[in-house]
């Protein structure tokens, strides 16, 4: 397998991106194609022992940064690492593309300029594995701010298929995320989508509130990209705020500071259980190729995990499954 | 001042509702009118020393429960404690109504059957003080699942006015909650509302992500009721999940359990700082009277705090201010 890794993606690029790619080559034995500025990548590679590993470099003269405007950058920087990397996948020279770069730009480059969407798929969607018990998928997480019910239905179908294939969950439970489980709750979009989901043949278990989603009472939580992104960002904000408050209060007295010290391994385990790096990036579903988007703050471990996610998506032939099972239906 | 308290509201009614009303009468010296089943209320009152307090009972033969459907119950149970209590306010026999009951039912009874909306207000909205540093207001928090930009503008105006009057914040910072601060982010509703907010004369500081809202970078966060409710419920779910995980991991080894014991006062302070009871209930803005909705899980303290919030809204004549400043404008 050949996995293309965007070396110019993460906030700390190219260091974690290259290190993660090398770690993936070592762990999985696959060929890793690092895309980006050749000189910078080679300098990073010099820090690693890559003997025996299948790592190669593909030069790209431009890079899209986190502060670039997605629509402009995707049109103007035609030789960006994203364009070059995604074209390798389009042309069959790579099996998947992994990037920790500007999400909006990856979406734009993949959907509008390189891979393009699978015929019959109305809108590709970003499916994030939520870093809590069971890692339910939240789809869409920001590719589409405004959607119609038929699009939500496809998100549900693609999410269900991914979870079934890649995670091996039989007939994944699918739910719409709403502000209440009762009939009549939800906005107009939810109320219209309920009908489509109920007739979809999916294992639709109704609507769930964020509480039930977080408890893992569904395998796939379906939502528009605006709401999905707000959920993700609220969750991150609250987790960070609680951590800060606990740290503040623990240092407020010597006794609680001692308590905090003794409990440190426990806190470390909590942190690890909520660590988004574990889940290995979010698949962009509905385009003609495997694309996995990792967090901008990714370290090498997170990049390696994202490559792991990409491998699974390739192995289980998710793109063909969506082409045959969703787009054709 | 005469504050009407729904004795049949909370999950544990009538005990916390009556106890909270009595505590408010004692702390504030106001007249508290407890509305609900006379026999049940009297039995609860017998547990308290109410000598010297201005507490009286107003019988209501029905009660709307948490599982009642708001639209049906508000039409059918015309002698519910909500109807009776809100009519006291409508008729000038009470200055404010406080309830920890079924939020949807309070909205329906207030807006459609008793107080009704202020002329010129398109949609009343629920403004929740978010239990984090600075207690920014999130408006709307569930009264309106689908809204138009002109409605969001009024939510912003009502929220700003409330925070300015009741909390004494000069020219409160007002922001739209979005999935990104950059221009072009947000769904269609947000993008159309930006124009209205910018021309509103409010202290509009742009769009904020949940992260900035939680950090207190705005005084009023404006959103549709669906998204607002999802934010609130996600925040509650993540806080609860983290607490559970920490508890689990602390008990996983004797040393971290000892650490947890020593750090207990620190955790207690964190819990208190994030306690929604402190903020004292959410005002329903845009109806002809002061209505404060407390959490269904309210204890007596939370009910008392909600009465405190109601007193402030009455003292600062928020209803007249909305009538003159928002509806007339």
In short:
2 copies of one chain form a homodimer. By secondary structure, chain A is an alpha/beta fold. Helix content of chain A is 47%, strand content 15%.
Structural description of this entry:
The structure is a homodimer of 329-residue chains. With 329 residues, chain A is of the alpha/beta class. The first copy, chain A, folds into two domains: 1-121 and 286-320, Isopropylmalate Dehydrogenase, CATH 3.40.718.10; 128-277, Isopropylmalate Dehydrogenase (3-Layer(aba) Sandwich). Helices cover 47% and strands 15% of the residues of chain A. An eleven-stranded mixed β-sheet of chain A has the order 3-2-1-4-11-10-5-6-9-7-8, sandwiched between helices. Chain A starts with a strand and ends with a helix. At the A-B interface, helix 8, helix 9, helix 10 and helix 11 of A face helix 8, helix 9, helix 10 and helix 11 of B.
Tell me the layout of helices and strands.
The structure is a homodimer.
Chain A lengths: L1 E5 L8 H14 L2 E6 L1 H8 L9 E5 L10 H7 L4 H10 L5 E4 L3 H11 L11 E5 L7 E3 L9 H19 L5 E5 L10 H11 L4 E6 L1 H5 L5 E3 L2 H26 L3 H9 L1 H10 L8 E4 L4 E4 L6 H16 L2 H10 L2
Parallel strand pairs in A: 1-2, 1-4, 2-3, 4-11, 6-9, 7-8, 7-9
Antiparallel strand pairs in A: 5-6, 5-10, 10-11
Helix pairs in contact in A: 1-12, 3-5, 6-7, 6-13
CATH homologous superfamily name of the largest domain in chain A? Isopropylmalate Dehydrogenase
The interface involving the most residues is between: A-B, 60 and 60 residues
> What's the total helix number of chain A?
13
Strand percentage of chain A: 15-25%
Helix content of chain A: 40-55%
Main sheet characteristics of chain A: 11 strands, mixed
> What's the CATH class label of the largest domain in chain A?
Alpha Beta
Going by CATH, the architecture of the largest domain in chain A would be 3-Layer(aba) Sandwich
Q: What general outline of chain A do the C-alpha atoms trace?
A: globular
- In the CATH hierarchy, the third-tier topology of the largest domain in chain A is known as Isopropylmalate Dehydrogenase
């Amino acid at each position: 397998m050949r996995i293309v890794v965007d070396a110019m993606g993460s906030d700390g690029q190219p260091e974690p991106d290259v290190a993660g790619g090398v770690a993936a080559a070592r762990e999985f034995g696959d060929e890793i194609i690092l895309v980006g500025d050749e000189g910078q990548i080679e300098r990073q590679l010099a820090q690693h022992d890559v003997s025996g590993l299948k790592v190669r470099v593909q030069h790209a003269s431009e890079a899209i940064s986190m502060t670039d405007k997605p629509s402009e950058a995707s049109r103007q920087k035609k030789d960006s690492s994203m364009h070059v990397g995604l074209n390798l996948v389009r042309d069959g020279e790579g099996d998947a593309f992994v990037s920790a770069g500007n999400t909006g730009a990856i979406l734009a480059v993949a959907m509008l300029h390189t891979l393009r969407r699978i015929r019959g798929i109305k809108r590709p969607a970003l499916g994030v594995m939520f870093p809590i018990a069971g890692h339910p998928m939240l789809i869409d997480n920001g590719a589409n701010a405004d959607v119609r019910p038929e699009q939500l239905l496809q998100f549900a179908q693609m999410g269900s298929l991914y979870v079934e294939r890649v995670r091996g969950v039989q007939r994944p439970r699918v739910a719409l995320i709403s502000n209440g489980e009762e009939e009549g709750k939800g906005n107009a979009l939810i109320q219209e989508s309920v009908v489509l989901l109920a007739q979809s043949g999916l294992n639709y278990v109704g609507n769930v509130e964020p509480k039930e989603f977080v408890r893992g009472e569904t395998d796939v939580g379906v939502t528009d990209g605006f709401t999905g992104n707000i959920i993700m960002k609220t969750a991150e904000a609250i987790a960070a705020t609680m951590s800060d408050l606990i740290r503040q209060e623990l240092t407020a007295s010597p006794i609680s500071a001692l308590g905090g010290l003794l409990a440190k391994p426990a806190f470390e385990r909590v942190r690890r259980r909520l660590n988004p790096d574990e889940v290995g990036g979010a698949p962009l579903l509905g385009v003609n190729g495997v694309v996995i988007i990792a967090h901008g703050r990714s370290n090498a471990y997170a990049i390696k995990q994202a490559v792991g996610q990409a491998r699974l998506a390739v192995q289980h032939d998710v793109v063909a499954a969506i082409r045959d099972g969703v787009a054709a239906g």
